[in-house]
Amino acid sequence: MGLRRETLATIAIDVARNYGVDAQLLKAWETIAASYAGIYRVTARSGDLVSLCELITDESRQVELIDDIPGAPGDVWWARLLPPMPGEAHWTAIATPYVFRGPAADRPWLDYFARQLGDTAVAKRIEAYRRLMKHGAKPTAWLDFIVDAYAGVLRHAVVLTGVPDRPETLPHSLDNEGEDNDAPHEPVPALVRVRHRLTSLAREDGAAQRSVAEFGDARARCGLADAGVEDWGPYEQMLLAALTMYGAPGHSGSSALQRLAGDLDGIADDERAAVAALQAGWFSLFEVVRVKIDVGLELRDVLRRKRLWVSERSGSRHVALGDLVASWIMREQDEVFFEGSVAQVPRMWASRVIAQTRDVNGQLRRRGWKWKRRHDALAPHVSAIIARTYRDRPPPAPDTIKVTSTTYAVPADGPVDMQAVKAQLLTEHLHAWLDNPIPALNNKTPRRAVRSSRGRDDVSAMLLEQERILRRGSHADRIDFAPLWSSLGLDYPGPTVW
To answer: Given this structure, which CATH class describes domain 35-160?
Structure first.
């Protein structure tokens, strides 16, 4: 959101009006611009259809899902919905909803809105609610809430817990003093409980204040504007929280993680396992070497010059080969995971960030520090280097990825079969996709990748995943997937029950 509350959607509308874009497309952008993410109670569910009721407006919506999002009657969804398109009957979630679970998940939200909106007339109350949900109390309010309220991932959705104005209900809030939350909720994952303990220990021992000071110094060295923590970017705040818990020494000379690991009396077994996994991990800057969709990533630690495999489902869909990931990782037996605090850098700026990070690492090495301590101390510098890179936006390296652009004409009169239009566009897109370089295939096209055994496996998995997702839509029956396979010399496995 800009200074005048402009968004990408409102900018697109201004451009569309200036260039005389088709009225239907302009209307679609206006609908997106007017939307907001509301709080809904799940009232019923049948297959891919879910019935929602918005808490404050009391308006009901029938929503068609394209993925297996958890949600039973009584759960609460935080979702941005768009009204039915011409020729369709159901609303659509424009992005994956966030989920609050439990039979009384709406109670904390009703209490929150009572505090925020006060006792006003219904019309004014609804107007104030929509303004709050669209703009928040401050520009980053809702992003901050997502970070603080994170409680894990269930199937394809992020699970949250708590409400914005009650830090004691938020697992990752630095203002969380550890008070008990009496609101009904699902069992909190062990890692979240460990983070809660570590945050409290860090605050008691001064590690939190030290982390803020170190991040502030690193930002100053990078020439970034002096700003309070609340004005830093979301990934900076996540890395700050991670350093506070895992790396920054307090007045005792030990980090919160070291202190907790040294006194595990009364700690549950699953929390002990989480502590051990965190101790076995480290912070570093990682380059994405290979992507296995919905399985994980092969990474190269650019500081230790070692390769490792990270089990990561959702992240495998958000990175490309050559991207950088700055994160703490944790190791549990033979598996490695991201701790959750992640900053990502596109590959076009990777060489710049790597060079600057290695320079700082060399300076710290000359102090005689062991590598783990050195890597912990690098976190503020890496965060500041990334922030400066995003601010300066240096020219990217020449991009070799081919982009296919096609213009489609929509009939000006007569009924439009939107399902047929969707099927046609998707079919043409899928066939064009076969001849575009794909980062997960080492920038080979699918047509070229199938020349090797490994490439055939990867392309087959991608085609199956495409079909699995598309078959959840009402227009999938009009798409013939077999020609995609045959054009690559692959045997089509046939329609499958997804």
So the answer is: mainly beta
